[in-house]
Amino acid sequence: MLKIAFDPIYAHPLPEGHRFPMLKYELIPGQLQHEGLISEDNLFSPTAVPEDVILLTHDANYWHQLRDLTLPPKEQRRIGFPLTEQLIERERRIAQGTIDGCYFARQYGVAFNVAGGTHHAGTNWGEGFCMLNDQAIAANYLLNKGLCKSILIIDLDVHQGNGTAQVFESEPRVFTFSMHGDKNFPFRKERSDLDIPLEDGIEDEAYLSLLKDTLPGLISKHKPDFIFYLSGVDVLSSDKLGKLSLSKEACKERDRFVLSACKNKGIPVQVSMGGGYSPQIKDIVEAHCNTYRVAMELYF
């Protein structure tokens, strides 16, 4: 059964100017249910991730300032909006949803978090609307519990996974792979284990060729026993922040290639949805739903 982390708090309204992207968190499961691909049984609502699990990844002082809403104004501006208790609760539930998804992925092969992909959060900073790094927290949780020995993080959001790269810069058990816009945010990049910077305007064939030439070798060389996939749809040509030129069809083929690679090797994969900022919400939702449709075709 495909299991999907979703909670109404994911769609918590943000300050003016940030509310539009939040609509997708309710619309994605709604569309999938409308199509009959999933039912309420496929959805699960996570609790808040415990503090001791957060501290496997994030600096104690940084976490306490988040928790107590005492993060300095300069650091809040770096995140992109002022802190509230509900926003911190939202981040904690997203992180736990990704951890729970790891257990479901181990059981069913693949699992999703409707939100997540908060890859700009480092050990002691938040940035780009990310405060707690959900996939980094889940990866450290798996390692701490002895559930995995080798992890691959595939980050195909249009923005570099700078926080994830920094968290694992000295952790040989986690290989970080980020394929992202070279001239896009964040403008100060960290060093992933493998970065593929992309020129503005790259189109379907060139993008997919790079991915297909790279990913199988990474899996063969590093032999992960768990994979995290960040499947941002801000790579679309319609995206107002992405600067790339991928079609919806190529984005779907990207997802098919990644998920097929995981399934064919028998490696469980947890998927967090990442970014998407096309002016038309229907384009964002359709591209995200394609990722679920591909998973249903391949696994179920």
Automatic annotation (TrEMBL):
Q: Name one GO molecular function term.
A: hydrolase activity
Q: Where is the Histone deacetylase domain?
A: 22-290
Keyword field contains RNA-binding = no
Record key words, sorted: Hydrolase
InterPro entries the record matches: HDAC_classIV (IPR044150), HDACs (IPR000286), His_deacetylse_dom (IPR023801), His_deacetylse_dom_sf (IPR037138), Ureohydrolase_dom_sf (IPR023696)
Does this UniProt record's set of keywords contain Hydrolase? yes
A Pfam family this protein belongs to? Hist_deacetyl
GO-annotated biological processes: epigenetic regulation of gene expression
In terms of PANTHER family, this protein maps to: HISTONE DEACETYLASE 12 (PTHR10625:SF19), HISTONE DEACETYLASE HDAC1-RELATED (PTHR10625)
Q: Which family does it belong to?
A: Belongs to the histone deacetylase family.
Entry protein name? Histone deacetylase
Organism of origin is Mucilaginibacter achroorhodeus
